[in-house]
Design a protein that fits this description.
The protein is α+β, with helices and mostly antiparallel strands and 370 residues long. The protein folds into two domains: 5-141, 3-Layer(aba) Sandwich (Creatine Amidinohydrolase, Chain A, domain 1); 143-369, Alpha-Beta Complex (Creatine Amidinohydrolase), CATH 3.90.230. The chain is 33% helix and 21% strand. The protein contains nine helices and 19 strands. The strands form six sheets. A six-stranded mixed sheet has the order 4-3-2-1-5-6. Strand 5, helix 4 and strand 6 form a beta-alpha-beta unit.
């Protein structure tokens, strides 16, 4: 089920408050994570124009092509205008511009809007100035509501089940692509969608952080890295990574993983309310570097999750983000030794209203040995 009408009205109202504060007159949202946030609509980017308009008076109107099925709950908080291929969106958009009084005004436009849609809207709205919508939605989406946290916790729990179900799949002779297919099927069987294309890496391929599955076969003695997430019906996501071992880990792997675990725990201990996200990255990097592994670090320590699998806060040395209560983010330092193996474990973390650091996933972060 989607959220209540009251919740979507609250989000739109908060967006209008930001809009007024920033001196804007209207917002335009096209299919994107922001569309999910404001309406629950999970359409992919379309060839045909679909846009949500919100003006500074709080009036919200959805322009949608006839071929898109719209759920009834939307009419409880949106005016809806449907256009057909026989007329095109132009005449309807002209009326929307008049009714919402947004011609020649200052607009905040969806960052990821297609260039063709942007040019068409510029022609029809003649905006005095265009701003990025993220100037509003970044703060709106940063701290999660209790309802949002519930959905993220649900996504994490369902992802853990998938990771535990790999026991009967990870056997010598299967390929990375086969395992990817099995994981995708497991996700679909639960009525879910993947939040991103799963990363499945065997052996030396684990040293590639964003490895794409190949026909490489699983062999005895291989380390396996699985990075997977799901998107639940309401649009919220998870993102978890675990390591598996087919056989006995080498001494080198055992030693490096022991150091990695210690640095991971030190990183978790550094997480507190009002701490800069960059400080968490510095703690992780410093620990790994002090233990001789710094040269194998190639990416940041983590990122936020919500309706997007990558969103603020970013646990990066250059980040200006500050950790607050009810933000949700990953912790996933990585060590990548080319030609040998890579080590990355990823958990999803939040901070409670009483400043407790909560590890949302409960699955062991040890290497799971078969």
């Amino acid at each position: 089920m989607v959220f209540s009408t009251t919740e979507y009205k609250r989000r739109i109202s908060e967006a209008v408050s930001y809009l007024k504060r920033l001196g804007g007159d209207y917002i335009v949202v096209t299919p994107s994570p922001n569309m999910i946030y404001f309406t629950g609509i999970r359409e992919e980017t379309l060839e045909r124009l679909m846009a949500l308009f919100i003006n500074v008076d709080g009036e919200a109107l959805l322009l949608a092509p006839q071929l898109v099925k719209l759920d009834d709950y939307l009419r409880d908080f949106l005016d809806i205008v449907v256009w057909s291929d026989s007329t095109g969106p132009g005449p309807y958009l002209d009326k929307i511009v008049r009714d919402l009084r947004i011609f020649g005004r200052r607009g905040f436009f969806e960052d990821s809007m297609r260039l063709g849609d942007l040019e068409f809207l510029r022609e029809k709205l003649s905006p005095e100035k265009i701003f990025l919508l993220s100037k509003i939605t970044r703060d709106l989406r940063y701290r999660k509501s209790v309802e949002e946290l519930t959905k993220i916790f649900d996504a994490v729990k369902k992802t853990e089940k998938i990771l535990m179900d790999l026991y009967n799949i990870l056997v010598p002779g299967v390929s990375e692509r086969f395992v990817e297919m099995q994981i995708t099927n497991l996700i679909a069987s639960e009525g879910l969608e993947p939040s991103f294309k799963p990363i499945i890496a065997f052996g030396e391929n684990t040293a590639n952080p964003h490895h794409r599955p190949t026909n490489r076969l699983l062999r005895l003695g291989d380390l396996v890295l699985v990075d997977v997430g799901v998107r639940v019906e309401e649009g919220y996501v998870s993102d978890l990574t675990r390591l598996y071992m087919i056989g006995t880990p080498s001494r080198d792997l055992r030693n490096i993983f022991e150091t990695y675990k210690n640095c991971y725990e030190e990183t978790l201990r550094s997480i507190k309310t009002n701490v800069r996200a960059s400080e968490i990255d510095i703690v992780s990097r410093s620990c790994l570097t002090d233990n001789g592994l710094g040269r194998y670090i190639v990416h940041r320590t983590g990122h936020g999750i919500g309706v997007e699998v990558h969103e603020p806060p970013y646990l990066s040395i250059n980040s200006d983000d500050v950790l607050e209560r009810r933000v949700v983010f990953t912790v996933e330092p990585g060590i990548y030794i080319q030609g040998s193996f890579g080590v990355r474990v990823e958990s999803n973390i939040t901070i409670s209203d009483d400043d407790l650091v909560i590890e949302i996933d409960k699955l062991s972060r040890e290497i799971i040995i078969y």
